[in-house]
Amino acid sequence: MDTFKKIIINITSIIVILFIAFLFALWTVRGDLFAIGFNKFFIAPSYNKTDIFLKANINELSYVAGELIEMDYDYITIIPEDDGYSMKVKHENLDYETIPVPNELIDHIETLYENGIRYISSGGDSVNFTMWSVMDESRGIIYSYTGTKPNGEQLIEVNRLSKDNWYYYVNNYEKAKERHPERFK
Which of 3, 51, 103, 136 could form a disulfide with 173 if both were Cys (CB 3.0 to 4.6 A apart)? Predict the structure, then answer.
């Protein structure tokens, strides 16, 4: 029985050491372990990672942004579902309604979601591509079709990316409330 306990302790120790090594490797490469892109689950994307994502996916991002801007809705949110995607849309003074995503958008949206986008929404003069979010904070890309720098009340960081009209953003409710309490009265 004493030998059995030693074997269990040794195996458990090896598993713990391997798990710690995996976490350290994941942290060291900022989540891009084996180029799978674990950062969309664990680590918030930095400005540089977001700019690399923008360059790699500019065709899909541009196409989706252009199509959403052309639609006759004030607000649009694309919702991933088990059997595809739908759009929650709103006209000026009406309630939200859910409609199917146009066929010409489906492949582009699917590619973006597979590559790391978690949410897509449009409203005002911009299209928002959220890449990462937890609790009160989200990060991603905003396309401003007017070219003006986005300035939402919960945005705590907005930086222009390498392509015109594209911006990296950090949205954090609690930090924005601390920095600009006058916006939340």
Answer: 136
Other C-beta atoms closer than 10 Å to the C-beta of 143 total 24
CA 47 to CA 68: how far, in whole Å? 24
Average predicted confidence (pLDDT) for the chain = 86
Cα–Cα nearest to 132, from 40, 6, 17, 22: 40
Mean per-residue pLDDT, 31-46: 58
| DSSP H/E element including 126 | strand 126-134
Rounded to two decimals, the pTM is 0.75
Closest CA to 70 of 131, 152, 127: 127
Distance CA 111, CA 171 (A): 24
Round to whole Å and give the CA distance between 67 and 87. 13
